[in-house]
């Protein structure tokens, strides 16, 4: 059935870090596959190896290394050369960043960062807090740098007292969210089913305006409203998705007016002709490693490539 | 509903201000510090003063030809003031430096201070006629008395009175409140010891034995070093005493047989029967009790005439120990016993006999009253009848013992030098080691007590001193407030283990261990105060001024029968009578509240038993007390008003003692509490016209102890769950001290990102739980999801783990010392050279050592690595013909099996007195949560990780939240941890409002209010949410309870437990596999497993398990004699060693367990020859049986 459908994406909202779109005309399985791909299949670059030369801070070496790893790096370079949005350098050449095990030369799969800070503040008694930021991108950076979310509040790696210092070299590599979530470009990805609220007006006849009002007030906010003018119950324009499928309105109706009113309101996900939900409202927030559109496209491409791989294997007869 | 209240009356939340003041001033280990201060500043001096004029040495006459002496020398010793030095250390070079706690910890020293005492030696010449003449006075100032361990943050500690910043400069944690000692580098706590109170009369009913009722008095003198002597007064069981029936007898110290009570009275000087009866019965018209006493009178009237005092004394003297001489001697001896040994707490002088007569009469009266059913038998477990010895009294006892031995030795050497005519050398005669070493030994081992018993290791208390548990800050605090009951742990008697009503407010109802010590080990409630004790003399004088009639001045004991009069007891001693007990009690209480008299007046207990007409006043140490708000007698409202609270809040200078002094609050001991009527809540005060409250609880949450105060909503949990959490909170990881980086603990866990709980209790502020937390707030779903969280396992989000959730650092320290003993044994830290070592294990790796034999910091180390290289120089001297060769033996320290890590710190320093080089190495490792690790919420809900799912496989809500943890719903209904659910609900609201939730017990939180709040913010009211399956994207059929909950990571981790073995090391003696994971040992195939194999009939499996895989051994036997033969397999030579009989015998090869071979050889050593026969020898025959 699904094969006869053409999935559709309508973008509702887009900014630097967020995208909100509706995926329609398809099955949950596809929607969920896309969601999972966004979280754990899209490659990014993150610090993976840290060589510490000096560390007199209060944090242990491993501690700092772990924190460095979690810093999101701008990772458009990690996109596959054949992908939908391959990375181009200044000259416009497609220069792909390779997996560590695939590259023959370090420069194709490694990016080095250096960090050297020492607190030399004179005041000996006062504990100086120093923000440490990755300062220098050494070579072959190609735009790979820490994401600047808010320059006013940069990521704090450690705080240093007077005369404490950190000196280290960090190597970033390509990876996917499956391996470690530091490579996951997504910080919040989920979809919801579009709710369809049907009020049974026939049943509603049996209720007085006061009763209707009580019901609406007892229901969680974000689904129904009471129209004082008409004395009718109306569906809210902006439906609170979180509460819509919790069955609260139905439960409240039953509690207030008895079991007969079990079908006073029915909230169901919007479904296609086959009776299965077919509209999925996606919310994707990235951590800045990739812009949201690239992320979603790359995820779709990864999914497609998986299918292609299967097809290829079938054709050649090898796995 | 508060409307009718006067506006100036306080409300419940106001009391937190009082509680804050309490903890600001006292902290949480006040009782430890106070008792130690009392010891070091008062008791030491008192103990020594006890010996004033007691030490006198007279020279024994010596026969020395040619010399003639007409006088003898005599020395009298007097001790003066004791001086206390601050903790210092004398290095080996002789340099003296101040000793700080952190130095003691790192260098394995003892944090102790030197005591000095002024000693005066008076030398007399004693002429032969006995006249004395003062020869000269030798004054020795500041003679070293010994070193006494110093309690941290006590008044003699170097940290005393210092502020946080200075404390941090001294490398201490500012949150640490002291209360423990540092002995040989390890932190030691002296556990409070519970015991029965002395000097109180207890009457018990006996179910077994000859006696029906027994009254006991454990008599101990307030000062001095006598052990308590118990007096038993017994009432015969009518059936068991054919001659006299239910008569009363008394067990006297140093008297072999029981003495009839009437005879004791006569011996005490009351001869007439009437007077005796008046002392016991008071009211001679009380026919019932008179009748009860008849058998006793009959008993005394039987046989010889015992109606005079002399006759009675003689009667006792005859039955005394070791006295068979003349009648005069016997009488004198009996008289002495009565004065010195009978109830010594009343007095040991002739004058105190009157009081003893009265007291004995009282004891007898109690005994009879109990037998007549007028009084209930006493309750042993009543907490008013219990005392708790803190560090101070424990140390004082030890000090007394040690000083006694010191004096004994001192006397000996004085005698020695007198007899030999030598000058007294103070340095050698006065050996301070008795105190230094005696106390240190007890504190290092926990075996409390001095003398022969301590050496033999029996009859002393063990486990008094324990290593301070430092896993979590709360664990350390709780350890410092623990009390132990030294009762046979195996005893299955339940009563002492049960929670007694009188423990309310002083002992935590939840925190006690499970199993053996359940209910015997207790933990003090948050505001419990332990009295340090004061002299009773002040109180007696006060009573006399208040119109009390002393017993000596009473016309007749008969007035006790009058309902106008009440008996007055001070510390169990009956001191007098009063006709106005109400007034007397009130005056005392007023004095206590106003603290008009100095000393420890605030801890005097005044308990008036109106029914029995008795007034009990106690000043002794070890009573548990707690502060309560005072209700004004006239107005019926609290003394403390709202305006006072406001004043307090604004004035930081207002301290707890000031509040105490103003009479808002007083300390009430358990005995007195029985006579009070205490309102539970502030709002109850004044609202009740029926009864008149005397006091009000400050806050009922204060009944809990340290560990139970961390539990949110404990009042909504099934009680055992709170007990479980109280035990588990001590195994959680967090930050155990802010100075963990400069400490070297043998074992430590530190969480990467500890969080303060989203849902807190008020008490946490004082426990510093939010400063040093032990857990993280997780998003928890209570759901069934894939089945990997069954049977208390948990599903955890791998993505959260990747991002640092519950990551922790594990520290382990290794320590070694370069021991040098003379020239024979020389140890050296160095990198061992394989060539130099006779036999070195090839499996270890010395590569990571520097030339000095130590690893570098930041070096990765693993299983086989040596981290401390050390060699021992052994001079072999066994073979005399060979030249003595010095051989080096390897005695390096290897990293523990199954562990790895990074060297964090290397400390090389010198050790205590010997100045030996000594090293401590701290190794650090990261512990990332994984399958099998243990986690728990704060409600006794523990579980291990069953599987970890990445975020994309975890369920998600319609807001995109995915849980960090999924708990199985089956964990809830049978355990009834409702608090867990409310915590989550309140946490969810807190997330939405940006507040911390208040989960203090006994506060009026309303689940409905919380859920309304949630509802108004657009969530399902009961915290349920619709989740979507992460694998499929479909909604889960059921709504899921979902929200943040505070979880703890417990120290039990799979990596420390995982163990398997195929082949491995064996024991040297019996060649069986080693035992235990640490030695890579085997898993025991035990009897039950063996039984299974037998039942199966799988003999070969059995043989393989028990023989081949264990200690299979091949040997040869002589088939003639059956004994082990000589076999050289290389040269194919076999023969029996017993060539006399078994020449040319055939040799057989057998397989037996090595253990069997060992047994045979041991038997042979016992002259028993076990013979192994592989076939029946010709000259032997089997008998049919």
UniProtKB/TrEMBL annotation, chain A:
<dbReference type="GO" id="GO:0046983">
    <property type="term" value="F:protein dimerization activity"/>
</dbReference>
<keyword id="KW-0240">DNA-directed RNA polymerase</keyword>
<dbReference type="GO" id="GO:0005665">
    <property type="term" value="C:RNA polymerase II, core complex"/>
</dbReference>
<dbReference type="Pfam" id="PF01000">
    <property type="entry name" value="RNA_pol_A_bac"/>
</dbReference>
<dbReference type="InterPro" id="IPR022842">
    <property type="entry name" value="RNAP_Rpo3/Rpb3/RPAC1"/>
</dbReference>
<dbReference type="Pfam" id="PF01193">
    <property type="entry name" value="RNA_pol_L"/>
</dbReference>
<dbReference type="InterPro" id="IPR050518">
    <property type="entry name" value="Rpo3/RPB3_RNA_Pol_subunit"/>
</dbReference>
<dbReference type="GO" id="GO:0006366">
    <property type="term" value="P:transcription by RNA polymerase II"/>
</dbReference>
<dbReference type="InterPro" id="IPR036643">
    <property type="entry name" value="RNApol_insert_sf"/>
</dbReference>
<comment type="similarity">
    <text>Belongs to the archaeal Rpo3/eukaryotic RPB3 RNA polymerase subunit family.</text>
</comment>
<protein>
    <recommendedName>
        <fullName>DNA-directed RNA polymerase RpoA/D/Rpb3-type domain-containing protein</fullName>
    </recommendedName>
</protein>
<feature type="domain" description="DNA-directed RNA polymerase RpoA/D/Rpb3-type">
    <location>
        <begin position="18"/>
        <end position="313"/>
    </location>
</feature>
<dbReference type="InterPro" id="IPR036603">
    <property type="entry name" value="RBP11-like"/>
</dbReference>
<dbReference type="InterPro" id="IPR011263">
    <property type="entry name" value="DNA-dir_RNA_pol_RpoA/D/Rpb3"/>
</dbReference>
<dbReference type="InterPro" id="IPR011262">
    <property type="entry name" value="DNA-dir_RNA_pol_insert"/>
</dbReference>
<dbReference type="GO" id="GO:0003899">
    <property type="term" value="F:DNA-directed RNA polymerase activity"/>
</dbReference>
<keyword id="KW-0804">Transcription</keyword>
From TrEMBL, chain B:
<keyword id="KW-0479">Metal-binding</keyword>
<keyword id="KW-0240">DNA-directed RNA polymerase</keyword>
<comment type="similarity">
    <text>Belongs to the RNA polymerase beta chain family.</text>
</comment>
<keyword id="KW-0804">Transcription</keyword>
<protein>
    <recommendedName>
        <fullName>DNA-directed RNA polymerase subunit beta</fullName>
        <ecNumber>2.7.7.6</ecNumber>
    </recommendedName>
</protein>
<dbReference type="Pfam" id="PF04567">
    <property type="entry name" value="RNA_pol_Rpb2_5"/>
</dbReference>
<dbReference type="InterPro" id="IPR037033">
    <property type="entry name" value="DNA-dir_RNAP_su2_hyb_sf"/>
</dbReference>
<dbReference type="InterPro" id="IPR007641">
    <property type="entry name" value="RNA_pol_Rpb2_7"/>
</dbReference>
<dbReference type="GO" id="GO:0000428">
    <property type="term" value="C:DNA-directed RNA polymerase complex"/>
</dbReference>
<feature type="domain" description="RNA polymerase Rpb2">
    <location>
        <begin position="656"/>
        <end position="700"/>
    </location>
</feature>
<dbReference type="Pfam" id="PF04566">
    <property type="entry name" value="RNA_pol_Rpb2_4"/>
</dbReference>
<dbReference type="Pfam" id="PF04561">
    <property type="entry name" value="RNA_pol_Rpb2_2"/>
</dbReference>
<keyword id="KW-0548">Nucleotidyltransferase</keyword>
<dbReference type="InterPro" id="IPR007642">
    <property type="entry name" value="RNA_pol_Rpb2_2"/>
</dbReference>
<feature type="domain" description="RNA polymerase beta subunit protrusion">
    <location>
        <begin position="27"/>
        <end position="436"/>
    </location>
</feature>
<dbReference type="InterPro" id="IPR007121">
    <property type="entry name" value="RNA_pol_bsu_CS"/>
</dbReference>
<dbReference type="GO" id="GO:0003899">
    <property type="term" value="F:DNA-directed RNA polymerase activity"/>
</dbReference>
<dbReference type="Pfam" id="PF04563">
    <property type="entry name" value="RNA_pol_Rpb2_1"/>
</dbReference>
<dbReference type="InterPro" id="IPR007646">
    <property type="entry name" value="RNA_pol_Rpb2_4"/>
</dbReference>
<feature type="domain" description="RNA polymerase Rpb2">
    <location>
        <begin position="1081"/>
        <end position="1174"/>
    </location>
</feature>
<dbReference type="InterPro" id="IPR014724">
    <property type="entry name" value="RNA_pol_RPB2_OB-fold"/>
</dbReference>
<dbReference type="InterPro" id="IPR007644">
    <property type="entry name" value="RNA_pol_bsu_protrusion"/>
</dbReference>
